[in-house]
Amino acid sequence: MANSENSRPIYPKVPEFSLSTFSSKDFIVKDFIEGLTESSVPVNRRSGTGNSNAFDPKPYIRTFEAALGRLKDLDETLSTRESELKEGVRRAEIDHTRTLDRLGLKFNTTLSEFQRLDTSISDGGGMAVRIGGQLEQLDKQRQRAEDAKFLIQCYTEFSRGDMGRLESLRRTGRIEDSIRCAVVSRQLSLVVKRSEGHKASKRTKELIEAFSETLEQDLLKQFDDAYRKFNVNAMKGCAKVLHDFNGGNSVISNFLNQMDFFIATSKINAGEVMIDADIEEKLSDPDENPPGLEPSLMALVNEIRDVMKAESQTIKEVFPFPEQVLGTFLQRVFQQSLQQRLEMVLEKTSTLSHLAFLRTLQTSRACIIALADDLKSHGLTEHPGTLSSTTTVLIDQNVEELFVPYLQDRGYMEKEKEGLDQLYTGLLLKFNMFHEQRKREQNLGVLDRLKKSRERAIEKVLDSDLGRSQSDTLSRSIELGRTRSGKGSHLSDAILTDFDGQLNVEFAKRMLKWLAEGVGRSLELSTPADTPKDVSALLNILIDHMRITYLDTALDAAQETAEQQAKGEPDLTYFLEIKPATTIMHLMFSFINTALIPLSQTSLTTRREIGKLTNTTLMNLEQKINNVIQRTVDVVLAYLAVLLAKQKKQDFRPKDDDVSLTTLQTPACLSVCAFLQKVAEISNESLDGTNLESFLNEIGSGFRGLLLDHLKKYQVNQAGGIMLSKDIAKYQDVVSKWGVVTISESFELLVEIGNLFVVGPAAVKERMRDGVLSRVRPHLLKPYLVRRDDFTAAGIDKMLASE
Fold this sequence. Notes:
Keywords: Coiled coil, Exocytosis, Transport. One of its GO terms (biological process) is exocytosis. The protein is built from 31 helices and no strands. By secondary structure, it is an all-alpha fold. It has five domains: about 10-135; about 165-245; about 295-415, no CATH class; about 445-630, no CATH class; about 645-800, Up-down Bundle (Methane Monooxygenase Hydroxylase, Chain G, domain 1). α8 packs parallel to α10 and α17 packs parallel to α22 (about 530-565). The longest helix has about 100 residues, at about 60-160.
C-alpha cells in the first residue's frame, strides 16, 4: 500500500476538454486558464508542505504542453469539419444555380406567352374601338337624317298651313321636347330666310314666326311659373332653351322684372326724399360731425348688397351664361335703382346748403365704393372664388358713372370753394361789420364805397343757399330778424360789441377744421392728379379770409389805434390783439406746413407757388406785428415823457424839512409807476417768451434814458435828494418785477446817480470812485452834480475840476 502511494505521479493529469467547452455561452478565457494553472500546482504545495519559496515551472510546462496538444487536436478536427461543410455548401450552391436557371427559363416562356396574349387582346380592342367609332358615326348620320326628315316634314306641313307636328311636340311640357321644338323652329326660320323669293315662303314665314313667338311666350310662362315656385331645374331648362332659341335676352328681362327688389325700389323712388330736421341741421352745420348717409339711401345700399349676393347664387344655378345675366343685373341695379335714388337725395341736400350737398356726396360715394368692394370680395356668381375681371371692371365702371355728373370738369371743387367762402364770410360777418363801423366813425366819407361793397357781400351770405337752418343761425348770431316776406333787417340794425371786433382763436380753429374737412373730401372725390390744384385753391381761400379779412384787418386796426393815441394816457387794449394774432398765425402755418404742402409734392409748380404764397403771407404778418409792437413802444415812451414832464420844479427842493416827506414818492413818480404797471400787465397778456422780454427791454431801456435826461433838469436840495432817491428806488422796484435781468442791471446806474444827491459833499468824490460810477467818466456825472444846491458852496465844482 505504501508502494502504491509512492507510485502516484507528482503532477495530476490535465483536465479533459472538448469543442463543447468552447462553444458554451458561459465560456470565459480567464477562467479556463486559471483552471489549467490550478491543476498544475503539486499536491504537496497545495497542502502547504515543502519549500514554498522555490518556484518550479515544470508542472506548468507539462500542463500547458498537454493543453496545447489537445487544442491542436481540436483544431485539426475543426478544420476537417469545416472542409466538409464547405464542400456541402458548394454542392448546394451548384444545385441552387441549376434550379434558378430552370425556373428562369420557365418564366421567360410564360412571359412570352403572356405578351402574345396581350397583343391579341389589344388588336381586338382596337378593332372594337374602330367598330364603335363607325357605329357612332353611323348613329350621328342616322340622327341627322331623322332630324332632316323631321325638319322637311315640319316645313312641308307649315307650307300647307299645318303646325300639328311641332304643336304636339310643344304641348308635351317636357323640357327635352321644348328644346327640340326650339331647335327645329330656329332651323325652319333659317330655311325660310334662305328660300325668300318663292311665292309660298311668305305665308310659311309668317306661320313659323307666329309659332316661334308662341313657343317663346310659352317658355317664358313656364320660366315664370318655375320662378314663383322656385323650381331651379325647370328654370334652368327654360333658360337653356331660350338661350339656344334667341340668345336669352327675353328670359333675362323676365327674370329681372319679376324681382321684388325692383318692384319695391320703383315704388320708393316714386316718392319724395324726406330728411329729418335734426339731420338737416347737422348736414348744414360745419361744427357738427357729418350725420352719415341719408337713411333711405343707406337702406337701399344695404338691400342691394343682400339681394346681389342672394340672386347671384340663383343666377349661377339657373342660367348657362351667368356672367352675362349678372352684368345685366348689375347695370340695372346701379343705373336705374341706385342712380335714381342718389340723384333725388343729392338734389334735396343741394337745396339745404353747399355743405350739406358736399357731405352727402362724399358719404354716398364712400358707401357705394364700400358696396362695390364687398360685392367683389364676395365673388357673386363665382362665390367662394374670386370675381371675374370682366365683372370687376363692370362694377367699377358703374360706380364711376354714378358720380361723373358731379365730379367732371372740377365742378365739385367750385362748390367746395363757394361753400367755404360762404362759411368764412358768415363766421367773420360781425367782425367785419364792427371794423367797418369803426372806420366809418373815423372817416365816413372815405369808406362809403367800402361799406356798400361789404354790405353787398354780407347780404349775399344771408340770401345765399346756405339753407334755412344755417341762415337762421347766422341771422341770430348777428341779431338780425327776418320779415314775413323773407327780407332781413338792415345791417345797421345789428347789435355790435367790442368783443365782435377782437380776434378769436376759436374762430381760427373752426376755420381750419372746416378747411381740413374740405381737404379730406377733395382727397376722396378728386383724382390724385388734381390734388395739388385743389390744395392750392383751398389755401387761397384760407389766406383770403384768415389773413386778409381777419388778421390784416385786426392788425391794421391795432396799428391805426396806436397811431391815433391822444395826448392823454394811451389806451393799450389794442395791444391785446397781438397774442391771439400770433396764436392764429401759428395754427395757420402749422396746418399749411403739415397738411397742405405735403399734398402738393406731386406738382413742382404748385408746390413752388404754395411755398411762395406762404412765405409772403408770413413775412407780411410778421411785419405788421412788428410795426404794432414798435409803435406801442413809441407810444409808451412818449407818454412816460409826458408824465415825467409833469414833475414840479420844487418837488426836489422842499422848503419844509419835515422828515415825513422823505418817506413819500413824488406825484409824478406815482403816476409813472402806475402806468408802467399797466404796461407790464398788458404786455404779459399779449406777449410771451423772447418777444415779451424784448418788448420790456425796449421799454426799460427807453425809460432809463428818459430818467437820465430827467435828472438833469431839476435842482435838488438835501431833503429833495432823499425824495429823488425814493423815486428812483420805486422805479427800480417796478422794473425789477418784470423779470428782465438786463433792465435790472441797467437801473443800478440810476440808483447810484440818485445817491450822489443824498451823500454829503465830502463823500461825493469817494462815491464817484466806488461801484458802478467808477466806470463813468466824471465829466458825464457833472450835469447831475450841478443840480445840487450846494454844488458851488460845498466846493464840489472844484473837486470835479481837479479830477
